[in-house]
């Protein structure tokens, strides 16, 4: 189409006019009051830790075309900051009568993406109390620290090395803090403070993004409640071992827990116990209420809840001589006949509230029914990784059926899918033998799966309701003849096919029990769950991350220096009993200062004890004295702290402490629990090994970790990925071939290369364009520079551009990738210089169109039609758009030469282009055109390597046909 | 020197990345992460190169009043207008930018893609002629695969989709794998040539 | 053979391609305007994806990631796939994440989620989460990073929330949990997932591609590196039917849908005329009608072309033209 002024004007007018069709806001300003949300309420969330409120309001009808609701929060009515939003589907609106928004837990306070300055919210009047989110500006944000519980998550390295020492004058003297910039926090999170008043408002945003008036701010006060109740408690008593076993289902929200406790309750005390719970509940709701009842249940077990990790949910309590004794927790309970007892589990939170589970009676059983945990298991460092995984593996490989499909209408041929769980100890499965039996128990067939492709075809004699499979695995390592798996395919009427039933190993149901792997390091007192596995699974990979964070409360700031202040003390690890943290400080002077304070405090306590007479007071003071004394002892005698104190250089001291911290948090011991989920479980001992691996830590750092390598495992990074060995060998062979062939070529040996029509024609095609006086089009593919095809395309471009410059023919190069653009420009420019025609180089001949795939094609097609290009080259990577370009080129009557390694586009190129370089010919083109020994040698090397690969393919096929799978197995699987 | 420094950078980094693919160690992984950060930092600058090129090419056309220069006006107006719409009103749903996207960009792109159907039809019409024995095989295969793709095929005979599957899975894949092996080696060879400095055309100019 | 016929075929031989275009256009437009019932046969690659996703039903420790690497141009083929997968996940209470790598895909993700979620009571951050647009340059680091820790690799979702704080992230750490990645693209982008997410971390990868790109992905499907594949519009139509027949199936015995069965799917016909199935959930099947007619049209053209070829060749004395 030839454009005139009139047409252009019309087009531009249409563009602008089309904009007028945008949905015009359907409301008038006058009735905007009807857009204010109604029934806005802020209520406490039950069962939480006092950090949550739920907002609710009545959503506006869908006719109002609301796109989102925005929520604002503050501690007074006049300043409310943007807090969050709820998206709404404009077309459907909100289906219910009430909308909810939960403001609970820790959510983002400020981060690097926060605005720099505090801004009034858009579209608000002068006196509006609404502001944007908290800015990075500490003058505004700093004072807000007092209105929330703020948690700073700091990458360990940043905390240890990027801090600034800040002294703040406080009531009781100057206090030292570690100051950190916002960028040193991986996150700063805020949570509501229980009992504090917060103001909220909400407004609606319409489809055209008009902000509607906000609702009158309301007040919400979060309240600390007792924790959420656990769902189920199971208890069992193993008579012959006199052990009580407990297992429960964990509750979902764990942030409001401190302790897990177990109680024994006499059945006769049940009513009294219920009364006690009722009274506790009353006291929780009404703080004025005074409790009078005592808990009739007796504590038999208590521990820390393990937050933030998932704790073990199984507990064993031993009865020795009719008594449960635990001195540390002051437990001494006499137990009578177990039938007369009930068990109760409880969760306690920081505020002292306690939630009891439903009572559960004991299942009295014998140890013979407990799951068998005699499988050999071990823990090892996972190989071929960067050192962030340990492997826990047990037992011998399992095989099981997963599905089946009928292959014919008579339902006598079935395709059966199976799968295998293995572990690194038995990682190469040689054979799986399947014996198939019909309903009557007659053997139908025997199948030897020497190459496991997860499917079997079985011919039945007649349609059957049930087919039984006996399976046996032969792997590396001795898997034994005696591991026989049985599983049946049973016809399921509902889904009209044979479905796998339960899996049995030597007659025992495999998936009745599941494995839970627990781990514990030097810096946490409680065991935590690593992973849960099915009864048929044989290994888990435990992630031991390199990243470690320090969690600190943040309540102070230094606006002048732009720093958030956190306490400078930190724990290096727990002591050997995993009870007390070994605390130290970023600044050595502070360590001494703290120690002096302890000593002073101790002296005070001793004087107090010596002057008082009351026995109760003395006992209390003695406990305190002991605590201080043990802290002082720890500080003075602990090998880590002693060693740290020896360092003169501050950085060296911190480096040493960092190493200790890393070893402590990345070394884990493991144990396995095998359970049916209902308190019938067996628990293994901690895994220990005698083959202690040498770990590359300095003696000083290792000194306090006596069990490291024996039961604590530290995963090490590997220097070579062993499963890439075949690739490495292949690389060397190929490299050698290249050098060898280049040498041959340099010696002057004639290397034959078969003629490639498409390349031979390049000169003619350029000549044609010259004769016709029309330009050449060259598209160097659509992908980026990292694609080798693009590089090959650019090499050809260089040669084509040089020829074109020699003939003085214009070349047009449209480009889709920004980074390819300057390179292509350089290539064309250099080509013109080399051809001695710098004058004919037009810097706009290489140009960018767009990154959008199909818009680019539209652009290229436009160039073809308007410029009437005589010759089109397409060299590089192409996708679905290829045909649209070449077909247009075909209609314009241009000679077209294409080359691509995109296999699916080759057919399109062949039908629409005059010459096509297929696959590797694209890569060979450069060498073919250059005809120099270096290039030709490489090309020849490719040929010989290809021959080698083909030989491998053929040999591999032949070998595996005769059941020799070693060659296939030599190559990595994935 | 102008040539040598880039070549040295290419060779060093190239071999480091080859080593990286065999070394899972943390040091190697960290180096890779560090490098990725640089890629992230550099790539936005390239966008400006594209935009500048677009302005230069179209600006020249407009100032020289070359034939059809009016298209360039529309191109530049579209670019500026869309960018401004995004900067001023943002890109959330309900904004002019999104409106442009949904009502201009989406239908236009879809139209270009839809052209494929027509072009494939005409290409197929031209290509599938029983000119020779091989061409006849190609023709038959095409008809079976096309029928296999639509319900009609299965309605005629259940063997049509089966055969279609076989054609795609066996002869088609065999040929494709052969080409892919060649391509893979070609890529490796080209990469090696670049690493060793044998192939330098992409640096601008010939050898 | 009379002269007229020969002349006709002669003409047909050199027909202006624009005539072909118009016939194709009509063959496509009419079936789209007037939907009719035609059977949809479900093939294995689609079925495998369905079964894999279905196996996550109600499991809070499993999730699916949908990766969008295409723009609006290929929407007609890919969009119905995305909507059906989302619908399946919402129907079966499966956690689903979405991510996109080109700016033009970001609105498509929202559009797909909004289309599917209309009929379900699902919430962002709890039942699904849109990671939003991440620049293509970050694709590799994110892809690899998710193998260790999704929350760290992705950091924020499309609403700028920190991922690690979201309820949906409970029990979801890396590819062990987010065990299936479905990549929707008009290019070979699934291959990257195979090389990095699958080879390094053992994630299951499935692809949803336009029909033109199907052949590119076949080798990976055959080796099992792709656990399943949506093959263009046909794949989308198959999935729509699967969701209709199983996940969305409601009866007294099965208030929450029923389990997959090869036998049932083969025997069931789902009517797409009428209002039983909302239009948005049968788009691909209506589109397949158009595709069927167009294919038949094409075959017809090819046959006519060949008949003409033989007739004219006879005329010129058996010489190859």
Description:
The complex is a heterotrimer of chains A (974), B (207) and C (321). Chain A is an alpha+beta fold. In chain A, the strands form twelve sheets. In chain A, strands 14, 15, 16, 17, 18, 21, 22 and 23 form an eight-stranded mixed beta sheet that branches. In chain A, helix 10 packs across helix 18, helix 12 (788-807) packs across helix 17 (921-930) and helix 17 runs antiparallel to helix 18 (933-961). Chain A starts with a helix and ends with a helix. Chain B has seven helices and no strands. The longest helix of chain B is centred in the first third of the chain and has 39 residues, at 26-64. With 321 residues, chain C is an alpha/beta fold. Chain C contains twelve helices and six strands. Chain C has helices at 3-13, 17-33, 44-54, 75-91, 106-117, 139-148, 150-154, 190-201, 211-223, 232-247, 262-267, 283-315, and strands spanning 63-69, 95-100, 128-133, 180-185, 204-209, 228-231. In chain C, strands 3-2-1-4-5-6 form a six-stranded parallel beta sheet. At the A-B interface, helix 1, helix 10, helix 12, helix 13 and strand 48 of A face helix 1, helix 2, helix 3, helix 4 and helix 7 of B.
